[in-house]
Every structure is written in C-alpha cells, then in structure tokens.
Amino acid sequence: MKSQTKIVQGMPVPVAEKIREVFEEQGQRQTKTRSRIANQLADLATRGEDFTVEGLWHDLQLEDPHMGRATVFRAVEMLVGQGLLNRIEFANGSHSYRVCGDAHHHHLTCIQCHRVVDIDVCIPVELIRNIGKRTDFKIEGHSLALFGYCADCRN
Ligand SMILES: [Zn+2]
Ligand SMILES: [Zn+2]
Ligand SMILES: [Zn+2]
Predict the structure, then answer these.
(1) Which ligand gives the minimal distance to the CA of 147?
(2) Is a pLDDT exceeding 80 seen at residue 9?
(3) Burial class (CB in 10 A: 0-12, 13-18, 19+), 82
(4) In sequence order, which residues have a C-beta less than 8 Å from that of residue 144 and are 6 or more positions away?
(5) How far apart are CA 43 and CA 16, in angstroms?
(6) What is the structure's pLDDT at 132?
(7) Which of 144, 85, 88, 106 shows the shortest CA–CA distance to 7?
(8) Rounded to the nearest whole angstrom, what is the distance from the C-alpha of residue 134 to the centroid of ligand 1?
(9) What's the 119 CA to ligand 3 centre distance in angstroms?
(10) Number of helical (H) and strand (E) elements in the chain, helices listed first
(11) Could you give the C-alpha distances from 100 to 50, 68, 83, 155, in angstroms and in order?
(12) Percent of the chain residues past pLDDT 90, beyond the cut
C-alpha cells in the first residue's frame, strides 16, 4: 500500500445486483421488501450519497408504509458485514453508511459538517506485523478513522 494521500474516485458499481446476490447467499428469500432495499441502495450508490438507517427507512416508507425499521437495520448491517456497505464513524459517536466499492481505504471526516473523504492511506504492513508480534496476536484486520475540520468549517 502506497503511503501518499490520494482521493479515491467513486465509481458506479452494479450494486443492486451484488446486494441481491448477498441476500440470496445468506439464504434470505427475495421478498419485495429486500428488492426495495436493494433498489434504494443502488440509487444511493449511483448518486454517491451517504445515508443513515433512519433516512433510508423514511425513504422506503414512502414506497411501503409497513416497512419496519428493524428490517432495514438488519439488512444494512448484514451488507456491512459482507463488505458491500461501509459504515462511517464520526467523531461524536454517530455514524452513516455509504457504498464505497472494493478498494481498501479509510475515511477522513469533518467533526463539524460530517463531510466524508475517502483516503487510501493505511497502516504500514510492517507496523501491523510488529504489533502482532509484540502482543502475540494473529491480526486479521484493522479500522482507522481520521477526524478534523474541513476548509469550509475552519472559515
Ligand atoms: Zn469510502
Ligand atoms: Zn466541515
Ligand atoms: Zn487500512
């Protein structure tokens, strides 16, 4: 992994297809509810928009007033677990979601306006190896979140 900072370009992904595949792999029936969720997420992915479970749920309720919040929450968390959605943590403990694509990267977020920037800076492999050795852990992954104030919020 290169160490210089670069903004990762968002790319359109056939995300609705992938989401349907994951629902299927998880042995979940292709209900109308799930295909609504998949379509809505595909929309958000195309527009490159961040969303919260609340926001997604409200949008889905316009199509289906009986859509349950827990159903939406479980679907979103399952897709995070499968690596199709990314959960973005903010400095104040809240979070949102976005469809980031496959490339390994991390997020820099603004403490004030919650702007999110994808960055491909990562923890150097040697450093992780070293930590594993010192702690006698077989390290399987990591998360890294950067916080700060964007140019607009500093003015
Ligand atoms: Zn991202
Ligand atoms: Zn800001
Ligand atoms: Zn990383």
Answers:
(1) 2
(2) no
(3) middle
(4) 106, 122, 123
(5) 9
(6) 97
(7) 106
(8) 30
(9) 9
(10) 6, 5
(11) 10, 25, 9, 29
(12) 48
Ligand 2: centre distance to CA 151 (Å): 7
Ligand 3 centre from 35 Cα, in Å? Answer: 32
Name the token pair of 124: 């150097």
- Give the C-alpha separation, 144 to 106, whole Å: 6
Count CA within 13 A, CB hemisphere, residue 67: 25
Per-position b or e across 42-78, b if 16+ CB within 10 A of its CB: bebbeeeebbebeebbebbeeeeeebeeebbeebbeb
CA dihedral 38, 41, 46, 50 (to 10 degrees): -170
| Centre of ligand 2 from the C-alpha of residue 87, in Å | 19
Whether 52 and 96 have beta carbons less than 8 Å apart is answered as yes
Q: How far away, in angstroms, is 33 Cα from ligand 2 center?
A: 35
Instruction: Give the CA diameter of the chain.
Output: 54
Q: Give per-residue pLDDT as tens, 19-35.
A: 878 877 776 666 788 88
pLDDT digits (tens, 9 = 90+) for 89-105: 999 999 999 888 778 89
Residue-level length of the chain = 155
Which ligand neighbours the alpha carbon of 104 most closely?
3
The rounded distance, in Å, linking the Cα atoms of 139 and 127 is 11
